[in-house]
Amino acid sequence: MDKPIIIDDKSAHGAPSVHKLVGKMRDIHKNYGLWICSSGRANAFAMLERSGNNITCPVKPRYFEFYCIAHLFDGGGRYWSPADGEKIMKKGQCVIMVPRFLHFYGHYNGPFVEDTVCFTGPIADNLFKSGILKPGVFNMGKARRLIPLLDMVVDPAVDSQIAANLSLQNLLVELYMENKRSSPDDGEACLGMLVEELKNTPAKWWTVGEMSDFCNLSEPQFRRVFRRHTGMSPKSYIDRLKIQQSAEKLISSDESSVSAVAAGFGYLDPFHFSRRFKQLMGLSPAEYRARHSAFKGFGT
């Protein structure tokens, strides 16, 4: 998409740089009240400076003339503002920035790898006034939640622009609610995203280490938070989730063999799958399918 943002670094020495909005808003965005003016995916930034044995980036105060969300999904980062001072960012966190708020964020011990969306308009102003949009660092999780929005916004069609705006609004409200329910460090906000990721990767057997890393938690802390959130251990949850999903698959896909269904949920041994299925569901996969097929026939 066009780059309607320029950086003014010609201010007096020591003065903050200004990221200015210079593009032209289309009628669809004027009428809607929200304009995604710039976006990027997998941008990696590293302004290098050595401090002892660590590679860091210098703090260069700046402010934007627009709103911005930058998701640090890989690498490392740090954030600074006059109110909060400096803090180290973890993978899975994001920076939300509002117009004319003095700040800086950049890489720390590795590139700052981000998906980003910049936006402006009356709707964004109202979200800011209501407290839904506020500057700072927030949990967002390691799933790249901006990608669907980025796919829509590059399409100039009116319907795609409307869909992108709706997606952005929904995401901002979701982040507000998730971070309001939990402190930025306890991982609760990330568990909902982790559960969705588990559902979307049915063939994978996640380890506790992979799940705790996804949520930026130590393994003991993750186990405690996960049990509080679900009422069971991570291993038991994945076990039951796979069997529940496979049961739905057996009913919805009559043409798939039990072995094929088992393989689709990560069971390389169909016998092991059938045994575990019967332990949890009370019937073998074939019996379960036959019974529910009879119910479907009865209802037609």
Please give a structural write-up.
The protein has 300 residues and is α+β, with helices and mostly antiparallel strands. The chain folds into two domains: 5-181, Jelly Rolls (Sandwich); 191-299, Arc Repressor Mutant, subunit A (Orthogonal Bundle), CATH 1.10.10.60. It contains eleven helices and eleven strands. It has helices at 27-32, 122-129, 147-153, 158-181, 188-200, 208-214, 219-230, 234-252, 258-264, 270-281, 285-299, and strands at residues 5-8, 17-21, 35-45, 49-51, 54-56, 62-64, 67-81, 85-89, 93-97, 104-120, 136-139. The strands form three sheets. Strands 3, 7, 8, 9, 10 and 11 form a six-stranded antiparallel beta sheet that branches. Strands 1-2-6 form a three-stranded mixed beta sheet, with no helix packed on it. A hairpin with a 2-residue loop joins strand 4 and strand 5. Helix 3 runs antiparallel to helix 4, helix 6 (208-214) packs across helix 7 and helix 8 (234-252) packs across helix 10 (270-281). Mean pLDDT is 85; it is low at 48-55.
